[in-house]
């Protein structure tokens, strides 16, 4: 005999009993009444001569308050569960919520740039202006939208903090579902494009390669950005919008520039804001990337000022998705001028009576990068660049082909960037994790502990060793280059035909140009074929401009 279970009132003949037990598969109260709606088998009217007894097990369960759930039909149970669970938004309301989520992530990115990378505080206001103008552009080009909907995003939100426990806003829970005929056209790369446009307007020496590096090293919110959204918004946002906030692959420079020209056209950027890029800082960045003597920096600036009007080095506007003239992008144009300047300097130096950059110097520069000679540990900036290149480089080496130094550098970065934020105590108060996940993490850290006695001794010794700065690393590279090239001022025997026995000087120049192209394509995440195509196109344009200026000068 089974024990009694407290449940609902029996009610048969005003029976007040709440105690039930199972007798022969039937719910029976303590006074012998069978539950109404329960299934009974082998009634007295059945044919006894059939032989055997047909039984059926009833999986009758009780809910939290003790009521029997079997009294509800399957459709009633499903409808009640759907009523409790919030429904997904679709159509126009989903677009409004998507814009709010996009604005929320854009604000978090601005805060990171100001607090971590030293951007000015008024940078946030500039980004807000660009975002408001883009919202107005969407409002003007969406015939199905209401004017008040987009004003709610700008006026009521104003990029303020969002409560994580906030329920669905009243302005987005409308009963109607309007079909949006115009695509919004936003992606996670759109946030980077807006941030880049704001830095150009303020004249900051920040370029697309910097944003790509911050994305790959998780110094800027990009990958898995939907995890930073409020929980109520994630539950109501459609899945295809949540997929946009996943981030996907890191963008290339060409993709970012294409997104920039599209947004510039949408907000009429060139008419209202400063659109000239800081090309001097970009040339300095390229010079230190190799590194090269300061003469290449000054010669590149003079070459740009002679060939190109500096007012043309601005962000362009295009309203097309099939823009293929990549050499017109301002950053790409400066990069191609830098590569051509190096080529022209070395070729003209060959005709000089006393070579300033001899073949031994070119060979030592190639040797420095081929053998990766280094007597100093890499700085944080170099480590971040290496990590970023392992993320987006398609031709990267297999993990088993990494050297010990590359493996150690990568594991140290993982430990500092991720494992330091995943301590044992962090999981105890994490509301997003279930009880089972917290127990599993606690047991995992009992097996692999981040901090041990040996680890404390190692960290204490390594903490005393200060990581080198970028300037110290740069000084070491220039000292290496000087030592490898030897005494360039005193050896006249190496002045003219020092490279004829090894290979032709033009071949060395071509190898150096290929090395520079490889370094730049990795730094800016540009496909090598596109970079070579842009260099050849810019070289033809330079030849045409030089001939035109010579003809104009002769005519005068």
From TrEMBL:
Residues 5-37 form the RRN7-type domain. Residues 102-231 form the Rrn7/TAF1B N-terminal cyclin domain. Keywords: DNA-binding, Metal-binding, Nucleus, Transcription, Transcription regulation, Zinc, Zinc-finger. It is found in: Nucleus, Nucleolus. GO terms for biological process: nucleolar large rRNA transcription by RNA polymerase I. The keyword Transcription applies. One of its GO terms (molecular function) is TBP-class protein binding. One of its GO terms (cellular component) is RNA polymerase I core factor complex. Belongs to the RRN7/TAF1B family. This is Uncharacterized protein. It comes from Naumovozyma dairenensis (strain ATCC 10597 / BCRC 20456 / CBS 421 / NBRC 0211 / NRRL Y-12639).
